[in-house]
Amino acid sequence: MNALAKLRWQCRRGTLELDLLLTRYLENGYASATAEEKALFVELLTFEDDVLLEILMGGIGNPPSRMKSVINSIRNP
């Protein structure tokens, strides 16, 4: 399995909202992202679904400050 296919599989989560947000970013923003943003996206995919959903939906989650640019890119394509 190539790296992009593996990421696509990791974007499949337990909620439709996460699936849509993560897959849209992978398809539309990931290719043009910097190496650092790509690494942060991969790291973000290791978060538990409930934490990730709060972070991406702007809830009470407190994302690491280094991830704010990639989170904004996911939220606002």
From TrEMBL:
<keyword id="KW-0143">Chaperone</keyword>
<dbReference type="GO" id="GO:0005737">
    <property type="term" value="C:cytoplasm"/>
</dbReference>
<dbReference type="GO" id="GO:0006105">
    <property type="term" value="P:succinate metabolic process"/>
</dbReference>
<dbReference type="Pfam" id="PF03937">
    <property type="entry name" value="Sdh5"/>
</dbReference>
<dbReference type="InterPro" id="IPR036714">
    <property type="entry name" value="SDH_sf"/>
</dbReference>
<dbReference type="InterPro" id="IPR050531">
    <property type="entry name" value="SdhE_FAD_assembly_factor"/>
</dbReference>
<comment type="similarity">
    <text>Belongs to the SdhE FAD assembly factor family.</text>
</comment>
<keyword id="KW-0963">Cytoplasm</keyword>
<dbReference type="InterPro" id="IPR005631">
    <property type="entry name" value="SDH"/>
</dbReference>
<protein>
    <recommendedName>
        <fullName>FAD assembly factor SdhE</fullName>
    </recommendedName>
</protein>
